[in-house]
């Protein structure tokens, strides 16, 4: 069911007319009538995947303005004990072992803390 819904989703994204969208809507209704529970579960899973992807994009977007300023290597090594490649994979959502790399909840907390820590260190520097 999920595969069928993903195909319809792609068709909807690329639909150019309202008539095409209406035909896709009819196909969606047929799938829902065919097996309502499977349809609902598949839709819920797709919504969760979309929400997760949106969260990943938000992280990348928020970091976009500071990435040219900060040393990703420093953050990776000192706050995560990892390589800069590891950190970039998560920032960019690169495919690793067949899945997009992403930060888990704890890693997001560490990253927030690291950004605040570096911000305080920079803010405390005063040259006279």
Write the layout of secondary structure elements.
Elements: H1 2-14, H2 18-34, H3 36-64, H4 72-80, H5 84-92, E1 95-96, E2 99-100, H6 105-123
Antiparallel strand pairs: 1-2
Helix pairs in contact: 1-2, 2-3, 4-5
Please tag this protein with its features.
128 residues, mainly alpha, two-stranded antiparallel sheet, 75% helix, 3% strand
Short description:
The chain has 128 residues and is mainly α. It is built from six helices and two strands. The chain folds into two domains: 1-59, no CATH class; 65-128, no CATH class.
Q: Which strand-content bin applies to the residues? A: under 5%
Largest sheet: 2 strands, antiparallel
Radius of gyration, Cα only, in angstroms? 21 Å
Major sheet: order of its strands? 1-2
List SSEs in N-to-C order: HHHHHEEH
How many E strands?
2
Protein architecture, described:
This protein is mainly α and 128 residues long. Helix content is 75%, strand content 3%. It contains 6 helices and 2 strands. It has helices spanning 2-14, 18-34, 36-64, 72-80, 84-92, 105-123; strands at residues 95-96, 99-100. Helix 2 crosses helix 3 and helix 4 (72-80) crosses helix 5 (84-92). The longest helix is centred in the middle third of the chain and has 29 residues, at 36-64. The radius of gyration is 21 Å and the shape is elongated.
């Amino acid at each position: 069911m999920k595969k069928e819904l993903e195909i319809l989703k792609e068709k909807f994204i690329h639909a150019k007319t309202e008539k095409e969208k209406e035909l896709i809507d009819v196909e969606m209704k047929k799938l829902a009538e065919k097996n309502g529970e499977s349809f609902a579960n598949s839709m819920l899973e797709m919504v969760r995947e979309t929400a997760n992807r949106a969260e990943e994009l938000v992280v990348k977007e928020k970091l976009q303005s500071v990435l040219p300023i900060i040393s990703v290597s420093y953050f990776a090594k000192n706050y995560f004990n990892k390589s800069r490649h590891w950190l970039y994979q998560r920032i960019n959502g690169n495919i690793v072992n067949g899945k997009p790399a992403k930060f888990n909840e704890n890693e997001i907390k560490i990253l927030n803390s690291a950004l605040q820590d570096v911000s305080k260190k920079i803010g405390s520097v005063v040259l006279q």
